[in-house]
Write a structure and sequence with these properties.
Structural class: alpha/beta
Order of helices and strands: HHHHEHHEHEHEEHEHEHEHEHEHEE
Number of strands: 12
Largest sheet: 6 strands, parallel
Number of helices: 14
Radius of gyration: 25 Å
Length: about 350
């Protein structure tokens, strides 16, 4: 048997089951008793059966592929999130098709059509380009990460708690003014919790503060220019004051830190910095950066586990309809390093 390809007919003869039963084992295993599933599984081992995955796709339309749409890879958060999602292959057995949309809605729609042509079984969406109502219309198991999620399942960091942690740490550093820098986005984006948490903490504790919301760029070069403009603004407005900077991501925190080092050769006493994400760049910066750890590995795993649960449910003969969306929040972890006292 091991010198030729093992067929369904070979397995049927070996087990005394019909070829229909063998086909059901591969396509709808829950339709068989556990005992019969075990018999067929052992026969596959005995016969040295190797799956023809292409044939399986053609037979049942299930590809074992998941589509991922990510906005960019220049922010270290997205690069590390993608790395962690891809690393779940050994655990869940699903493969991935990845597209980078750069925030363009029409491009994203084209990518989704391409993914559907490959018979993907589910999607993980990190891009903000399309509303969740449109993503839900594809009637495909979908999980969002850190984006608007009214109509689809999601896994997000508790951004509000993270902002409270960051702001509280900076307030203990005896800063004269606390400043939070972020992009402009609507309140239904999970990251808005960072803005709200910062403002609430400052107001409740009578902490002098400023909120800087502006376009922070869409490339490493644009980020650098935005950080340079903000740095020059802060130097001019608060020349002799100790400034506590709560940055939107570790990428932005590292860019700001580099500007300070270029001028002073160290982290000046006039600045304290904390980032957000705990992506590798924070620990590897010229001076390790304090940050709010999003537990990226845990978010990736939880997102995959949630998506696989929904995909596997759809494969059952009588799948249960999802009556309530799942929105998981992952607790962030404050990580103190050398950019705060």
């Amino acid at each position: 048997m091991d010198k030729k390809k093992v067929t369904f007919n070979d397995i049927a003869k070996y087990t005394n089951f019909s070829k229909t039963t063998i086909s059901r084992y591969f396509n709808h295993p829950d339709s068989l008793t556990v005992e019969n599933q075990d018999i067929i599984a052992q026969a596959l081992i005995d016969l040295g059966y190797q799956k023809n995955k292409l044939a399986k796709v053609l037979a049942n339309g299930k590809s074992e592929f998941i589509g991922i749409i990510i906005p960019n890879l220049y922010l270290h958060y997205y690069a590390e999130m993608l790395n962690q999602i891809l690393s779940t292959y050994k655990t869940f057995g699903y493969k991935f098709l990845v597209f980078m949309s750069k925030g363009n809605a029409e491009t994203e729609r084209e990518y989704i059509q391409e993914l559907l042509a490959y018979k993907i079984e589910g999607m993980i969406i990190l891009s903000h380009a399309l509303p969740s109502s449109e993503l839900a219309s594809y009637d495909l198991p979908t999980v969002a990460i850190e984006r608007e999620d009214q109509y689809i399942n999601s896994v997000n960091t508790d951004n509000y708690m993270g902002a409270v942690q960051a702001t509280s740490l900076l307030s203990k550093n005896n800063c004269d003014i606390l400043i939070h820098v972020n992009s402009v986005f609507p309140k239904d984006i999970p990251a808005y919790g960072r803005i709200q948490g910062f403002q609430d903490t400052c107001r409740e504790n009578n902490i002098r503060h400023e909120l800087i919301l502006r376009d922070l760029g869409h490339s490493p070069q644009e980020i650098h220019m935005a950080m340079l403009e903000i740095y020059q603004y802060l130097k001019k407005k608060y020349p002799n004051e100790k400034k506590g900077l709560f940055m939107p991501t570790d990428t932005h925190a590292n860019s700001m830190l580099n500007l300070i080092f270029r001028e002073y050769g160290s982290l000046s006493d006039g600045y304290r910095i904390i980032g957000f994400d705990d992506s590798p760049i924070a620990a590897q910066a010229i001076l390790p950066i304090s940050t709010v750890g999003q537990q990226i590995d845990k978010i990736a795993y939880e997102a995959m586990e949630l998506l696989v649960t929904r995909m596997e449910e759809r494969k059952k003969r009588r799948p249960k309809l999802q009556t309530e969306l799942v929105h998981k929040k992952i607790t962030p972890i404050l990580i103190r390093r050398e950019t705060t006292e």
